[in-house]
Protein: Extracellular solute-binding protein
Organism: Streptomyces eurythermus
Amino acid sequence: MTPNAAPSAPSRRSFLASTAVAAAAVAGGLPLLTACGGGQEGRKEGTTSGKAARKILPAYVASSVVAPDIPAKNGSSAGFTKAIALDRLKTSVPKKLGSGGELTIMAPLWGTPPDNDNPYYKAMNEAIGVRTRWQNQDGNTYDEKLGAILASSDIPDVVVVPGWNLNGKIPNAVNAKFADLGPYLSGDKVKDYPNLAAVPTDAWQRCIFGGQLRAIPLPGSYVPNIAPFYRKDVFDERGWQPPKSTDEFLAWAKEATDAKGGVWACSDMKWTAFNAFGVLNGGDKALWWNLQGGKLINRIETEEYLEALEWARKLFAAGVVHPDDKAGKTTNPAGTRFTAGKLLVYNNDLSDWFGKTSEQHAQNPDFEMAAMDIFTHDGGDPVLWAGQPCNIFTFVNRKASEQKIKDFLAIANFCAAPYGTKERLLAEYGVEGTDFTLDKKGVPTKTTKGVNEVLGAFDYTGKPAAYVAHPDFPEVTRGMIEWQQRMGAFTKKSSFYGLTITEPGRWSNLADDFEQLEDDVVRGRKKIGDVQQAVSEWRKQGGDDLRDWYRKLLDTTGSAR
């Protein structure tokens, strides 16, 4: 058994860059006090933590079905390097929990939606005891569809909401339109669903919206998931060593670039630049804030933010970045240029390590890639900032009957089955002989039918604590886990780590233009001065007021660090 699990929960970047869906386990603390904003019921702004959260959160009971070959450490995933024979798989759901009822589920999908009566869906429905009808929507425009659905009265029984779509009016719609799962999951009640009881507590913490436990989480590692990948085979051949500082990287990049020969050193390295200079994590706007020296600072106000953009700009200016990156072409992505040898370093979700290695194994046996440790601006230890422990949520319609809610929890419990179980194999790979076959080493491999149908559905309705299991490439599994463990040792949690925060609507889109401005700066279309001016305007247009709001929230709730 070798589910293609990645080490962290999917972000928009990882979904668009890789077909691997990420899941990870972390254990974290809880804030100290209750949130501001009055009573818990129906709160539209703020957050819930501390004593109030402890009354809501499910009890945690760790799973011990199969011991990992590489135990989790420093927030990493656990690693499994050996295949588990089908006759040795355990059972984590001994009886069907579903009632035989039907649920409609809306979820994003990057690809062509499969037929609702395909063998994979049928097998899952039969095993769980629930008939699912999937309403798959184009992931690229999912926010538009989601907004329209939540504004209507025709909401499916179950709705998947990626964290990056929690913008505009959607957070308040979540509070108004979705059910409280606390009566079924809070405290020891979750023990009726043992696989859900093994989901880490801080992932559940993120599922508290409007003072109620409203979602099933897709748990994720807090270790930063963007890695600078390099062509290890080329580095070894040329005698190069991974750089230890940004200056070393630039010097190496100038040496390695051969524009006439069609080889450039790297792609756009902005994401790695933010890590190299210790910029606060950008995956969630709440994580842009951190208490430093007694003052709450937003990442766009820091010197590190400007320095990271300036270094990324220098790479473009030096001509070491592939020209397609400057032109913004998406038809020939960086990963494709990387495997073709047209560039030697690119940054992407850590899960791409397995994807690219597997892809190149047959056609280019000499291909080898690895992930550089995060180098820094001064050659010292990196300062990395934790991502949120959950970034995809699955909700139940507030109008759903008690039986529909229980049927959904039956699905979630089945899909949260741990590695080494029959349930995990079915959820990840589908039906043997139809969706996957076993190779000589007992490793399952998806058929064309499996690739097209076993995706974008049950992925979102439950996941176990994070693991990476690629027995067909054990060296990649080990490399991914050990990279996480090394980087996890330098990862800090900022002031609002682990909290789901609904900002006041008047300020919720205040910083939306900064990502485009960043890209313009590193490509030389704008200057650092334009960023400084934008920060000044941000402060005047509400940034300082938003700071005061966050500070009041922090003073009342405490920090999760």
About this structure: Residues 528-557 form the longest helix (30 residues). The first strand starts at residue 78 and ends at 80. Confidence is low (pLDDT under 50) at residues 2-43. The two ends are 36 Å apart (CA to CA).
